[in-house]
Amino acid sequence: MARHSRKDEGASLVETVIAVSLMGLVVAGVLGAMWSSVRLSRFSDDQAKVEAVLGSAADRLANYAYIPCPTLTGNGGYLPIVQAAAGTVDWPVSTVTLVSLRHWSPTSPSQGNWVTTNGLTAGECNESASLTTARTLQLITISVTSPSGYTKTLEVVKNNVFPRVIS
After folding, report:
1. Cα–Cα distance between 93 and 82 in angstroms, integer?
2. What percent of the chain has pLDDT over 70?
3. Residue 3 falls within a domain, yes or no?
4. What is the span of the domain harbouring residue 44?
5. Taking all residues of the chain, what is their mean pLDDT, rounded to a whole number?
6. Residues pairing with 157 in the sheet
7. What is the enclosing helix (H) or strand (E) of 159?
8. pLDDT of 93-104, one tens digit each?
9. Is residue 131, in this structure, part of any structural domain at all?
10. Is residue 143 domain-resident?
């Protein structure tokens, strides 16, 4: 009768199950960490793109002619100008919106304040509105929302100190 030594017996079923379970836990932990890294990278990418679009929208707004009586929506104001910035990252124009448009009023009750109404009459809303006839500061709030839902806003002050002709 041949004698078997303990070394020749191999691993029991219980030992094998424990080893496979431990390896599964390690692999699941590594995969979870990798997935978190991918999600964080995607979020960081969205943040960077939102910042790029906001910067582009602010530049476009600063370089565009002053509009004495802009509207918040549609083609009567700055909306098409800032929405063009979405093209810098190939996003739809709907990702860029104008949240608010306020005018500086030096005569408001608190000795100067931002108000939502423009002090110009309909007849004064033209290219020749100048420092003497118009409220020359506009506070424009731009919002950019990435396709994944990350949103950031920026306030830009537009002035009519150096009037330009609207083209």
Report:
1. 9
2. 80
3. no
4. 12-159
5. 81
6. 139
7. strand 151-159
8. 999 999 999 888
9. yes
10. yes
Token couple for 112: 């100067």
Exposed/middle/buried for residue 17 (C-beta within 10 Å: 0-12, 13-18, 19+): exposed
Q: Give which of 41, 57, 49, 40 is closest to 145, Cα–Cα.
A: 49
The span from the CA of 166 to the CA of 130, in Å, is 13
**146 — pLDDT class (breaks 50, 70, 90):** very high
25 Cβ contact partners less than 8 Å away, ≥ 6 residues apart: none
Picking from 48, 39, 145, 55, the residue whose alpha carbon sits closest to that of residue 91 is 145
The sign of the CA dihedral 155, 156, 160, 164 is negative
Q: How many CB atoms lie within 10 A of CB 57?
A: 26
pLDDT in tens, 4-57: 666 656 778 888 899 899 999 998 888 888 888 777 777 788 889 999 999 999
As for how many domains the chain has, the answer is 1
Max CA pair span of the chain: 117
Q: Quick one: pLDDT at residue 83?
A: 93
For CA atoms 118, 123, 126, 131, give the dihedral sign.
Answer: negative
* pTM given for the model: 0.68
DSSP, res 155: E
| Residue 7 is assigned to a structural domain of this protein | no
